[in-house]
Amino acid sequence: MSMPSRPVSISSPSPKRWWALVVLALTQLVVVLDGTIVNIALPQAQQELGLSDVERQWVVTAYALAFGALLLLGGRVADYWGRKRTFLVGMLGFGVASAFGGVAQNGTELIIARGLQGVFAALLAPAALALLTVTFPSGRERNTAFAVFGTVAGAGAAVGLVLGGVLTEFADWRWCLLVNVFFVIVGLIGGIFLVKESKAEGNNRYDLLGALTVTLGLGSLVYGFSLAEHGWAQIETIGFLALGAGLLVLFVVIERRVAQPLLPLRIVTNPVRGGAFLVQAIVGSVLIGSMLYVAFHLQIVLGMDPLPAGLATLPMTLMIMVMAPVATKLLSAIGPRPLMIVGPLIAAAGLAYLSLITADGSYFVQVMPALIVVGIGMAMIFVPLQNLALTGVAPHDAGAASATLNSALQIGGSIGLSVFTALYASTVAGYDGGGSELDAFTSGYAAAFVAAAIGMVLASIIAAVFIRGSKSDLLPQGADAEASPALPVH
């Protein structure tokens, strides 16, 4: 008699599985909130450590770039090396990196720590999702588990902003990093005793050359955009952008030839999926890039303390949660294409209104209405996006497709933040409005919001061009009846 391909203990019900869900959901919360928790703390960190504006940008970019660039490899490591083992190593490394960042004495150390957080988050996130999949293999329990996991992911960004405000105002900005140590201790204990090991079977080989080229390519591209602050025509800017583009072309060539590619090209060459990935990248640029400048405007220009500033960013997240059920019903009625076209345009309108901010303006008049409108538009995008990104994907490609979607968000955010920072810096440097320094800052923030609005219009055009087909084609096998909001992993 042949042995079963999967250990019976993994798929058999266990009383520990719900406690395992708590541990895995906690992991997802840590990974997501760390994308935003430092946003509110950055003004204080910049002042204490003497960070330049570029260094300030890289505190955010280093995490998103390392996370996004290594997610695909992290998923492969988890599948091949062992998901529990990868989870525990990722958790431990994330905790050490967080502690290092919490005691950083200069900008370089803080940026390195954030990069290391991203590296270990790229191991942690796919391992946690894979463990959730094998712990709850099917049925109603699986749907419940994924609903809990997705809700935590969706709330994580908002939790990060509020928790960052609380810690920065009542303790110190360093606790925005040190607090992770407590989560990590719980995650390690729970992971050791509650989670069972599993791994993909067969002859599995790592695509190390593909991983190296895509990581260096994306890093060069993002660094080149960050250098644009000193001028788009500078030799260093052009050189790193060209190097990044060349390495990404080489990555595509490698993926076409290698037996077990890091990213099977069939995942991204499908027009619908490719369009969804491009839209996700632009959404990432807005959520990670331009929204950072909302936090700066609230604290630096409007003079809010960290906690009120964190709370002041919540209208967008709350509106996403309120509108998600409405968008889900619309998805069942009219399909994903109209939502993917109209949603970005609504978000663009909110960003355009946000660009009208003034140094002496009111939060309730100039900022909050814009965040509400952006939230409405984002809800219309998030609800169909996950389904579209996985449309027609073979089961053995589902993990890579999901990782690609999350990578698109993080890499889009990294590139977007670099571009917005360059626009902000050039606008402030060239400001001649005759006002105060705060007026100059506000003009820089407004330039970033205008660029973000243009990006969302481009996302609408991409959706109109690439996401074609009937509702039944785009949401096969009853997906419209089960659609649920795919909130982003920041």
TrEMBL record:
Entry keywords, A to Z? Cell membrane, Membrane, Transmembrane, Transmembrane helix, Transport
User: Any stretches that span the bilayer, and where are they?
Assistant: 58-75, 87-105, 111-134, 146-167, 173-194, 206-226, 232-254, 275-296, 308-327, 339-357, 363-383, 404-425, 445-467
Q: Which Pfam families match?
A: MFS_1 (PF07690)
> Is this entry keyworded Transmembrane helix?
yes
- Read off the Gene3D superfamilies from this record: MFS general substrate transporter like domains (1.20.1250.20), Multidrug resistance protein D (1.20.1720.10)
Q: How does it sit in the membrane?
A: Multi-pass membrane protein
Where the record annotates domain Major facilitator superfamily (MFS) profile, the positions are 20-471
Q: Where found?
A: Cell membrane
Q: Which residues form a coiled coil?
A: none
Query: Does the keyword field hold Phosphoprotein?
Result: no
Protein name, as recorded = Drug resistance transporter, EmrB/QacA subfamily
The scientific name of the source species is Plantibacter elymi
